[in-house]
Design brief:
heterodimer; A: alpha+beta; Rossmann fold; OB fold (Dihydrolipoamide Acetyltransferase, E2P); 2 domains; 6-stranded mixed sheet; 5-stranded antiparallel sheet; 10 helices; 34% strand; globular; B: mainly alpha; MetI-like fold; two-stranded antiparallel sheet; 14 helices; 2 strands; 76% helix
């Protein structure tokens, strides 16, 4: 990624622009299979050149949503628009949309070259042009040496590349990726995530990825939509999604978070004073209105809390006992049983070879967890 | 000692089937082959020379010296035989094609049916096997004859005014063969189609194919092994089929199975009928071997 494109990327926020025209629009879309509602009155706008991730547990409707764009699922109610045009009457083979399948769905009776050229041949492109485009695609995914191989003679990672090349060969306006890296091992998956990002920037095509892997979604996408039971819970760029989750579901789905139930005592200037069930007092930032007496949750990420053996000065602490310690190399994670009964995780970055602060704390020690008011959040739902 | 015995027993899974083939395939084949180069004789058994184990090698050698290929020459000279071969092959090819035409959509429908239905559909295909083959072919006589069920039905709905002559024609033979051999076509096709990944069709449609194009470009070529297996399973027994042409066919139906039967039981010419059988075997085996060879070569090239 060169400096210029990263600059463009930083300022790429069409969803903040009120005048921007959505590239894809779901308008009040509902999908029912008999009595089961897979997608429930959902509206969503996606912009051109965006790398958009649909994230959620299996069965949340994310795959159904994607398959509606490809044309494999019909919309029960509402409509899907691509560049302002209603897609409902367009069959899959006429949509300017291509999909990379979770199983890759490579044609086993054709070699790599034929697989990639399949869609072009179907379009009626002359053989010479097909050969050129296929060669271009092969070099794009670095598979030039495998043109004559059949899919069953390729490794999982190579098949993934061929599938990607095949779905890009027709130069679609929108590329759908259904769990594209699910079958790869961890190392390869991480590498490929970055390659996908580079590729998307290079080609300028809108990408939509379906995944249940939150790290993958955060690595590749400009914006993430978290789905739950056929509804979108929150749509936001990765950082915002992580730092300002809309509710406990999103907070818990994206990374780890400590949740402590509390009641609002007072609230002033975006800072709420909370009282936990155990009687401890906390001052936490509260962007949403926090009426006094409301039942809320203090939400703090493990890396945003600090742990100490001595009671620190000032407030905003929760006392507890060390329950478990996990040394992960880069991090040490302390699992602390709070006096109120909840468990909290605190992660400490192991910045030096012998970090005395972290090393000193051991099992069953009495510890204090402190949190800065601005580093934690009050969640109302 | 014990180890040796165990190793022999362990290898029995390999040599037992070969012994079976030796006794029940190779030995009869050699007997028929030997008969085909003998000459008919009014004797018991009705051919010469005969081997007597006690003659010793010299006697055997003498018998071998009497072998002649006269029967093969005779078969090529008499048009009855090659006409029977041609007609058998023609009937077998056409009925294999018809079976494929009916069996493929059936197998396709079964493979695409809801998962819970499939065992029942499979059962329905296999069910006719529970009744004797002969009885089922006889039943077709009752359906196809002049005053049979089919004609009565067609007359009743007013589609025809005169009963059709179907029984004792080639049409009846085709109906009988297609009906009897349909399961042999459907089962291998179903096994193949059921295993096919449905997402391949979606991928083809995603890349610009209509449903029909997707079928011809993806499903059909991938189902080739099933098509070939099904066609062999129908074609090979059909070429030598005897019961169906005898019961449903007429005088015009010339099939090698009937010619062979007549030669053997009417003319009591065992050597000629053996030669007819050997040639039939060659007609069937040679193309299959060539086909397998070309398949193996094609696989080899891909590596």
């Amino acid at each position: 990624m060169n400096a210029k494109s990263s600059q463009q990327r930083r300022t790429f926020q069409p969803w903040e622009d009120a005048d921007a025209v959505p590239f894809i629009e779901f308008r009040n879309v509902t999908k029912r299979y008999g009595a089961v509602t897979a997608v429930d009155n959902l509206s969503l706008s996606i912009y051109e050149r965006e790398f958009f991730a649909l994230l959620g547990p299996s069965g949340c409707g994310k795959t159904t949503l994607m398959r509606m764009l490809a044309g494999f699922e019909e919309v029960t109610e509402g409509a899907v628009y691509l560049e302002g045009e209603d897609l409902s009457s367009t069959p899959p083979y006429r949509r300017p949309v291509n999909m990379m399948f979770q199983s890759y769905a490579l044609f086993p009776h054709m070699n790599v070259e034929k697989n990639i050229g399949f869609g072009l041949k179907q379009e009626g492109m002359p053989a010479g042009e097909i050969a050129d485009r296929v060669a271009e695609m092969l070099s794009l995914v670095k598979m030039q040496d495998f043109a004559k191989r059949k899919p069953d003679q390729l490794s999982g990672g190579q098949r993934q590349r061929v599938a990607l090349a095949r779905s890009l060969a027709k130069q679609p306006k929108l590329l759908l990726l259904d769990e594209p890296l699910g079958a790869l091992d961890r190392k390869l998956r991480e590498e490929t995530q970055f390659e996908l990002v580079d590729l998307q920037e290079k080609l300028g095509i809108t990408f939509m990825i379906v995944t249940h892997d939150q790290e993958e979604a955060m690595t590749v996408s400009d914006r993430i939509a978290v789905m739950q039971q056929g509804k979108i819970v929150q749509v936001a760029p990765p950082a915002q999604m992580y730092e300002q989750p809309a509710n406990r579901y999103v907070a818990d789905f994206l990374g780890n978070i400590n949740l402590v139930a509390a009641k609002v005592v007072t609230s002033k200037g975006g800072i709420a004073t909370l009282e936990t069930a155990h009687g401890e007092e906390l001052e936490i930032s509260c962007p949403d209105p926090c009426p006094a007496g409301a039942q809320v949750w203090m939400a703090a990420r493990p890396e945003k809390m600090t742990i100490s053996l001595d009671k620190p000065k000032g407030g905003n602490q929760l006392a507890g006992t060390v329950w478990d310690i996990a040394y992960l190399g880069d991090l040490t994670i302390f699992k602390v049983k709070l006096d109120g009964g909840e468990f909290a995780r605190v992660s400490v970055l192991n910045t030096s070879l012998t970090d005395p602060a972290a090393k000193a704390i051991t099992w069953e020690d009495r510890v204090w967890l402190s949190v800065d008011p601005a580093s934690a959040l009050v969640l109302t739902e | 000692m014990k180890a040796a015995l165990r190793s022999i027993l362990a290898k029995s899974t390999i040599w037992l089937p070969y012994i079976w083939l030796l006794i029940f395939f190779l030995a009869p084949f050699l007997i028929v082959a030997k008969l085909s180069v003998s000459e008919p004789a009014i004797a018991q058994p009705p051919y010469t020379p005969t081997f007597d184990f006690w003659d010793g090698p010299a006697g055997w050698w003498r018998a071998i010296g009497q072998f002649s290929f006269y029967n093969y020459i005779f078969i090529t000279e008499d048009s009855l035989y090659w006409k029977s071969y041609i007609s058998s092959l023609q009937i077998a090819v056409i009925s294999t094609f018809l079976t494929l035409l009916i069996g493929y959509p059936m197998a396709y429908g079964m493979a695409r049916a809801p998962r819970t239905w499939r065992p029942m559909l499979l059962m329905l295909v296999i069910l006719p096997f529970w009744t004797s083959f002969l009885i089922r072919v006889y039943a077709w006589i009752g359906i196809l004859k002049k005053e049979g069920l089919l004609n009565q039905f067609l007359l009743w709905i007013g589609l025809i005014s005169e009963p059709l002559t179907i029984l004792n024609t080639n049409t009846a033979v085709y109906i009988g063969i297609v009906y009897s051999y349909l399961p042999f076509m459907v089962l291998p096709l179903y096994a193949n189609l059921e295993r096919q990944d449905f997402s391949l069709l979606e991928a083809a449609m995603d890349l610009g194919c209509t449903q029909r194009q997707a079928f011809w470009k993806v499903t059909w070529p991938l189902s080739m092994p099933g098509v070939i297996a099904g066609c062999f399973l129908v074609f090979i027994p059909t070429v030598g089929e005897f019961v169906i042409p005898s019961l449903l066919g007429g005088s015009e139906t010339l099939m090698i199975g009937r010619t062979l039967y007549d030669e053997f039981f009417q003319n009591r010419d065992w050597p000629v009928s053996s030669a007819v059988a050997i040639i039939l075997l060659m007609i069937l085996i040679v193309p299959i071997m060539l086909f397998q060879r070309s398949e193996a070569l094609a696989r080899e090239r891909e590596r």
